[in-house]
Specification:
LD-carboxypeptidase, single chain, Glucose Oxidase, domain 1, alpha/beta, globular, Peptidase_S66C, Rossmann fold, hydrolase, Peptidase_S66_N, 349 residues, 16 strands, LdcA_N, 11 helices
């Protein structure tokens, strides 16, 4: 049975959006970057950004108080003045929030939640609560981009969380993984972007459809086996969207994680697979990754599964915004990746 998800109201210009530190409290060390992100978000989308009560209390406090981070999420959900929720930055310990998260609040107060990396934990809890969530840029990353938000990023956010219409993803013409220090004097210095080699179809010939689910593989590995791991029904018939972080896991490790997915029956019932451009992979590692993906799918009897790779989301820039829970279509013949239904609803729906 195909799962169904509540679509939160679309965000509109003038909306108030809460900024949350659900993992790292690093933001207090780069407040100039935070302020630049607020300015750029206001200019691009018209949102008013307000910090959650504990979001700016610093690394030490937030590390010691995972419940305070969960409380911020609950505050944003229950506050009628807050229209949406934005992750400030990732980290490595959102899994510690699981004992404190209230899925019923998520279900009763569905709102746009946008983030990636360690926010994968929270994105999955929205899906477990039956609410669409949005894998996309955090406040301190692409939304506070050096020299301004990239047009591809702004378009991706608008089409995913500000419109209820279907849309087709487009490959970015250029990309980067350059690390430019987050210093005040460099904030208006654009990073170097190189021409993109485009997306790659690894296998599959027939079009397929399914709801989107996934996130950062390293974070999914931390979540795997915990009470926060999505139930089998949430994986069945899905288009898996998976990416890797700046930890740069070797190709064989990605293969091992996918073997776990096969052991759970996830690959056997998947409708498709979309892989992000892997961060800091030289060409030989990319080919090794593709080899492992094909190998594991062959082991799982899924040589028919459509697989699209090198897609613009995750830990390289610019990144698309993926409406998790929304139904999508992969068409290897047409070479397209499209969302068939918006992940949000118009406020008056």
């Amino acid at each position: 049975m195909t799962p169904t998800f509540i679509r939160p109201p679309a965000l509109q210009p003038g909306d108030t959006v809460a900024a949350l530190s659900l993992s790292s409290g690093f933001v207090t060390e780069v407040m100039h970057r935070y302020e630049a992100g607020i300015r750029q978000i206001g200019a691009a989308f018209g949102w008013q950004i307000v910090p959650a009560p504990n979001a700016l209390r610093g690394e030490e406090y937030l590390s010691q108080n995972p419940q305070a981070r969960a409380d911020d999420l609950h505050w944003a959900l229950e506050n009628p003045d807050i229209a949406g929720i934005l992750s400030i930055i990732g980290g490595d310990d959102s899994v510690r929030l699981l004992p404190y998260l209230n899925l019923e609040l998520i279900r009763r107060h569905p709102k746009v939640f946008l983030g990636f990396s360690d926010a994968t934990v929270t994105l999955m809890q929205f899906l477990r609560a039956g609410v669409c969530s949005f894998h996309g840029p955090a406040l301190l990353t692409d939304l506070a981009e050096h020299g301004g938000i990239r047009p591809e990023v702004a378009r991706g956010v608008r089409q995913a969380v500000m419109s209820a219409q279907p849309f087709t993803f487009q490959a970015a013409p250029a990309w980067t993984e350059q690390r430019l220090e987050w210093l005040p004097e460099l904030q208006e210095t654009p990073r170097d972007f190189a021409p993109s080699e485009g997306w790659t179809w690894l296998q599959g010939q027939q079009p397929t459809e399914g709801h989107l689910i996934g996130g950062c593989l390293e974070v999914l590995d931390m979540l795997n086996g915990s009470p926060g791991w999505p139930e089998p029904d949430l994986w069945r018939g899905a288009v898996l969207v998976l990416e890797t972080s700046e930890d740069v896991p070797p190709p064989h490790q990605v293969g091992y994680w996918l073997r776990n997915f096969a052991a759970q029956g996830i690959l056997q019932t998947a409708a498709g697979l979309v892989l992000a451009r892997p961060r800091s992979y030289p060409p030989e590692m990319v080919q090794g990754l593709y080899g492992w993906v094909r190998k594991v799918l062959r082991e799982a009897g899924r040589e028919d599964l459509p697989v699209l790779a090198n897609v613009d989301f995750g830990h390289t820039s610019p990144q698309l915004t993926l409406p998790l829970g929304a139904r999508a279509r992969l068409d290897p013949l047409a070479g397209t990746f499209a969302v068939l239904e918006g992940g949000v609803k118009q406020p008056l729906d």
